Amino acid sequence: MRPNDAGNQRPSRPLTADQAWQITSARAAECVLFFDFDGVVAPVGDDPNAVQPVPEVMAAIAGLAESVQRVAVVSARPVDFLRERFGHLTDVDLYGLYGLEHSHGSGETVTEPAALPWVPMMAELAERAGVELPEGTLVEYKRLSVALHYRTNPHLAKQVDAWGRAEAERLGLRVQTGRMVIEIKPPVDRDKGMVIRDVASTAGCAWYFGDDVSDIKAFDALRELEAADDRFFGIRVAVANPETGQEVARAADLTIDSPQALGKFLAEALETLRA
Length: 275
What we know:
The strands form two sheets. This protein has an eight-stranded mixed β-sheet, with helices on both faces. A four-stranded antiparallel β-sheet has the order 6-7-9-8, covered by helices on one side. The protein contains nine helices and twelve strands. It is α/β, with parallel strands linked by helices. Helices cover 37% and strands 20% of the residues.
């Protein structure tokens, strides 16, 4: 199939980025673009609360939101955190805490009801982690989850991981590993893959940009949608990183070197869509 063929047949793989965007441009009105935040829209930092998006990426996302059906951010961050960074982009949907929270555009934040009873336990867990874990562990309390970071002290990895897994087992919670972090969250069935299945099930095209192992579930969701619909067109993009990058890249169609490089990639894509 030619790159500019907008017929009902899904194009054969592999595709170059230019080919993928040309196909997307013919389906822009039915296409959803999904972005993880940390490691994709913004570089990963030692202090998670100080992380800011790459300006070129944000500028491109603003343009893309006007060119496709929807743009959504799907992140482990709470919606409140995401709104501080994306609040000026009122057409961008925010899915926080792996989908336990969501806000459509500039609307109110909606929390998954099944997760709410776990809020007190998460607060208690965060407090205990601050006391029991060794100095150098950064405890990030997110209301519906607790992230234990050891990026600045990688020698603590085994100790932090063991403590987190033991507490999760004792309390009946779930564990999500990531880049120099272990996150403990409620036993509620919600993850990035489920968000993508829900949102993109009525779309004809979707891209997902991710960098970490939790994003592989989103990649898998796009493959499932393709298997269920011969016309659905999905593209999985990995943003490289030194910790989990190889595993994520193996599950992707395309790989981008960094969040900074993603800015240029999206700017070029926007020119294609507008053309």
